[in-house]
Design a protein that fits this description.
The complex is a heterotrimer of chains A (290), B (114) and C (297). Chain A has 290 residues and is of the alpha/beta class. Chain A is 31% helix and 17% strand. Chain C is built from eleven helices and no strands. Classes of the chains: A alpha/beta (290), B mainly alpha (114), C mainly alpha (297). Chains B and C meet through helix 1, helix 2, helix 3 and helix 4 of B and helix 3, helix 4, helix 5, helix 9 and helix 11 of C.
């Protein structure tokens, strides 16, 4: 045990980055920083880093995410107003000392310890309801069937709010999706992506985000094979090629509730990543205004 | 029997090792918010287990055809040199017919997500 | 047999360490040698995550089965003439079974937490894992033809004159596609990819995650040793003793697999499915036909 602890003391700190307003550039600047490692899931993280201001409207979402870091966990607010009274606040350019401090913190849950729906002890077997399909076993109902948009088979539809802090979606974008398998059958924008400023549209940053989803780095992408991996006809190849040449992209996507249904998860994620954050935000805001 | 002793022994070793390593660490009871599935702050309405829409089901039928073909291929590989050209022609025909199956399946969109 | 098994069990941890080092080279993170050990130790000290109503048994066992499949696969590879842990006349079939069961184990790993992102990863992986497995068996049958046997020992012996990588140039690159698929890497990482925030591992933490990575690295070692035996002449080679040759070749294949995983981009799964069936699988038929003609000459 002591050997493990001695080794672990000098390990990289796994950090899950929640990206807020103008936080994209901040978080990207940490990617190659020694001493920490940005991870894709809060389950893999020790420290929750909030980079850039997060709206008070997202407080609950942030608290839910915070609870998903295995305990003990720490929080760092980097150029962000704290939404709950825990963690280190950093206003300057270097969050490293605060992250180190947070790596020995032990924040309690911010959410009450109750199941999403009450269930315990209800029903003849304590399973949460009556009959075969009724009730909320372990706090949630089971999925129910619905017709599919592709082959018309009536299999289960999975409805959930995805985001606003999912690492593969543009930061701040929260989508109410219904999935059949991994195909999106309906989509609604619950909140628009955060403002990232001109820095968020920088070609190298946008290209790096997209390439990361394809599992390669910018050096491998120079061989141009990366473009062939993308689906044809949706403009993704054109936009990634422009970014790789160092050019800005100023195309605006179609409204998401019309464009996303019918796409497979991997396609949808790549399609969203192929637009600059400012244009995507504009497309979602128009819809909200209308 | 002795030939398969080692696979059984190493399987047991691996499973015992993996279970032990997972049991050694701190065992804490998780709270409800900690146990919720990760959706980036969002919440699901239902459990994730479902009658999942497997979009590639026609491909699995084609897969079974090839998997059966594989079974014939094992003994074929052993006697191939002995049997010579006949074996080459027979397996060539078999694979040729199955390849037509691939082409037909491709035309019918078997490899797309249905 | 026992000597060979002990040798494998002793050689595996350093090789896994080497695999983790290969993964760090070129990421610009430094600490190439000690980094993986330290991060692994830190993970071991973190708690496992409980999810809502998980399939506890499968969740606990999935990393263990994955590791077991890697070990069983590795055990059919001869270390030197006469030294092999599992001396089966059907060693290639046992290896093929390990490939097939890997698909099942990765599926269980994604299924068991009862969470959406792992579940999608699990189902996608099955779609790609099945044809990738077919592909590999066709090229391995190609390696078995000149040996007139399904025993890996015989396959290595048959390469005394000329290595299979020269006789069957298409074999090794096609087999590498399977290597990428069963080690969840790069273009074939449909289970644990970044577009699913870690996919089947998205809900894992602490020792369970560390073990999954450990098992994944041991599968890379097993695959590389198998590729070295089937295509690069295994323990055969001048001057140096057999096990050293096997080690060097295994390391070379490992490095090549890691590099390939970094170089090729991941396509959306339906596109990859078409590519596998329409391009790679027919290529493996062509490879087999060429081998067949070459062997009869």
């Amino acid at each position: 045990m002591t050997l493990l602890s001695a080794l672990a003391r000098r390990a990289e700190i796994p950090v899950f980055a929640v990206i807020g307003t103008r936080g994209l550039g901040l978080a990207e600047s940490l990617r190659r920083r020694p001493g920490l490692r940005l991870v894709d899931s809060p389950r893999h993280a020790r420290v929750l880093l909030v980079a850039g201001a997060v709206d008070g409207a997202q407080k609950q979402a942030l608290e839910r995410l915070h609870a998903q870091l295995p305990a003990p966990r720490g929080t760092v607010w980097w150029q962000a107003e704290p939404l709950f009274a825990r963690g280190e606040v950093v206003t300057g350019d270097d969050p490293m000392p605060a992250i180190r401090a947070a790596a020995s913190a032990d924040d309690p849950d911010q959410r009450p310890d109750v199941p999403p729906h009450p269930w315990q002890g209800i029903g003849p077997h304590g399973h949460g309801g009556r009959g075969m399909m009724g009730g909320n076993p372990y706090g949630r109902p089971m999925a129910m069937t619905a017709d599919d948009i592709r082959d018309g088979l009536a299999l289960d539809a999975y409805s959930a709010r995805f985001g606003p802090f999912l690492p593969m979606l543009p930061p701040g974008l929260a989508l109410d999706l219904t999935l059949q398998g991994d195909v999106i059958v309906s989509a609604d924008v619950a909140s628009a992506p955060f403002e990232q400023g001109p820095q968020g549209d920088a070609p190298d940053l946008c290209a790096a985000r997209m390439l990361r989803l394809m599992g390669i780095g910018p050096i491998a992408a120079r061989a141009r094979g990366a473009l062939l991996a993308l689906p044809q006809g949706s403009g993704m190849r054109r936009r990634l090629a422009a970014w790789l040449r160092g050019e800005q992209v100023s195309e605006t996507p179609d409204p998401l509730p019309a464009a996303l249904p019918g796409l497979e998860w991997a396609e949808a994620v790549l399609w969203l990543a192929s637009f600059p954050p400012s244009r995507l935000r504009a497309a979602c805001m128009e819809r909200h205004a209308a | 029997m002795t030939q398969i002793a080692m696979p059984i022994v190493v399987t047991l070793l691996a499973v015992v090792f993996a279970v032990a390593m997972q049991r050694i660490g701190p065992q804490t009871g998780a709270t409800w918010p900690q146990r919720a599935p990760f959706l980036g702050g969002g919440q699901p309405e239902t459990h994730a287990w479902q009658r999942f829409h497997v979009r590639y089901y026609p491909m699995t039928l084609l897969f079974i055809a090839f998997e059966m073909e594989m079974m014939f291929m094992y003994p074929w590989a052993v006697v191939y040199v002995e049997t010579g050209l006949t074996a080459l022609a027979e397996m060539g025909m078999f694979l040729g017919i199955l390849s037509v199956g691939i082409l037909y399946g491709w035309r019918e969109g078997v490899f797309r997500w249905q | 047999m026992i000597v060979a098994t002990l040798a494998l069990l002793l050689a595996l941890p350093p090789l896994i360490w080497a695999a983790a080092m290969f993964d760090r080279i070129g990421t610009g993170r430094g600490a190439i040698v000690m980094g993986p050990i330290r991060n692994g130790a830190a993970l071991m000290l973190r708690p496992n995550t409980e999810t809502e109503a998980p399939d506890r048994l499968n969740r606990l066992l999935a990393p263990g089965w994955y590791l077991a499949l890697a070990l069983v696969g590795l055990s059919v590879v001869p270390l030197a003439p006469g030294i092999v842990a599992t001396d089966l006349s059907t060693g290639l079939v046992l290896w093929g079974a390990c490939e097939a069961l890997t698909v099942v184990v990765v599926f269980l790993h994604g299924w068991s937490p009862n969470a959406p992102l792992p579940l999608i990863g699990a189902y996608r992986y099955v779609a790609i894992g099945l044809p990738a497995m077919l592909l590999s068996m066709f090229v391995l049958i190609g390696a078995a033809l000149p040996a007139e046997s399904l025993s890996v020992v015989e396959v290595v012996e048959a390469q005394r004159g000329l290595w299979n990588v020269v006789r069957q140039p298409l074999g090794l690159p096609l087999f590498m596609a399977l290597g990428l698929a069963i080690t969840l890497r790069g273009p074939f990482d449909y289970a644990d990819g970044a577009e699913l925030a870690g996919g089947t591992s998205a809900e894992e933490s602490g020792p369970a995650l560390a073990l999954w990575q450990f098992a994944r690295a041991s599968m890379l070692v097993a695959f590389s040793a198998m590729a070295a035996a089937a295509f690069l002449g295994g323990h055969l080679g001048p001057v140096l003793p057999g096990p050293v040759w096997l080690l060097l070749k295994t390391l070379a294949v490992m490095a090549a697999t890691v590099a390939a995983g970094r170089f090729f981009a991941r396509m959306p799964p339906a596109r990859m499915l078409t590519f596998l069936w329409v391009v790679l699988l027919p290529l493996s038929f062509v490879s087999l036909a060429l081998v067949g003609v070459e062997v009869l000459e």
